[in-house]
Amino acid sequence: MPVAPDSITLPAGALAADIVVEEATKVIEGVTVLDRVSFTARPGVVTAFLGPNGAGKSTTLRAILGIDHLTAGRATIGGRPFRDYRQPLRVVGAHLTPDASHPRRTARGHLRVVAASNGLPRSSVQWALELAGIDGIADVPVGRMSLGMRQRLGLAAALIGDPAVLILDEPHNGLDAAAIRWLRAVLRSLAAAGRTVLLSSHLMSEIELICDDIVVIDGGRLLAATTLVDFLGGARGPGPGRRVSLEERYLDLVGEL
Amino acid sequence: MRSAWRAELVKIVTVRGQWIGVVLATLAIPLASFLVVATGGLRSGASSTSGTVTGSLVGLLAFGAWSAVITAGEYANGTMVLSLSTVPRRLVLVTAKLLAVATTAAAGAVVSTLVALVVVLGVRAPGAHGFGDPASLVSVVAAVVVVAVLGASVGLITRSPSGSLVVVALALLLPRAASGLLGGLEPWVVGATPDTVIMQIVGGAQLPASQTYPAGMWAAALTMVAAVVVIAAGSALVFVRRDG
Q: Do B78 and A110 touch (CB under 8 A)?
């Protein structure tokens, strides 16, 4: 099992690139799933992308990565659409699902495919395996790994190019306490090194610990895009002198409190 | 492009079932040819090279099935999202996939044909058969590559491994099976199917006129290649539009 360090030393990013989503609109079979969503994820901070299930988070992340087309609006990374990058892993690392690897391929094989696709050296495979703490199970088929281990593999694939930008869709799912602590350290280290981190999650207590900026959408519409401090600022929780938590503020905003 | 192509090759070699599929497809032609020749199925006067290709239809089916499952399987097991997020340019990605399948199939076909030739030379009746033209065996490699690209293209279009298998099998078998329905088009259609193109180029096999391409064997080969290029371009178009 991997060590869960308090901090991880990563090299400073060669690039500083922001993620800019402008008036992103997506209509699928007459249903508007994204409605003029705009926000920016800045370098050097961790931006949380929050919303209930079906709010449009994954659609937005897929649009940023050029996997889905927007009906209107645009999404750029470092001022360019994702598709303009010939070898994107040096700029953008993404982890959208723990099921993106063939169940009969080993973790090492999976990372070899990822590295080869962007001309990364073979040494990057071992580096990513060790960074994600899965070098001990590198030759186990992915189909025999737990969800948490597959999440780590996805994170290793996202980090393998040492990118300036990291995009993660619900990376906490299936992680145990040690792995959550490890991920926290990785994300904070990335931000400290000037990288841009955008992640969706439903784990509010963890988001409150690691995020600087908050973006909230619901029903495909933007509800908030601000700093965590401003998001919580001024609101008071139940009981005298108690500060409102992110969970309470978020649930209040999306009308589920 | 080179990186994307290499990644597609690494995909094949890092899943045991996928490279075992190549090995099995590679064994198909020698095994089928062995069975035909060893059981006296090679008619007198036929050359060893024509004996070598008697099992080519089995090999073509095997490589076509393998390549169809390779591409359609990416949709079936949900791994296409990784391809799309690591190689953002759709045309580069689809070209790399088709090239990787073609490269692997070509390597397999070369080995397959050489092994089949050695097997036939080993089991043929002594003195009963001439050697034939070894250069004509290149047609086997070309036909295997064509069918592999066809299978991969169909896999990209259907996104279904089982559906792709059915389409590839129909594409290879239906023209001859339903030749009676083709009327005057029969020699133009059946004569340009991969296995009859091989038979025409390798020679020795007495194909009936209804299955011999009227414009000659090289025109038959060109027609076969052109048809698959059109299908591959169609699959690329579908891929770019649907997954773009």
A: no
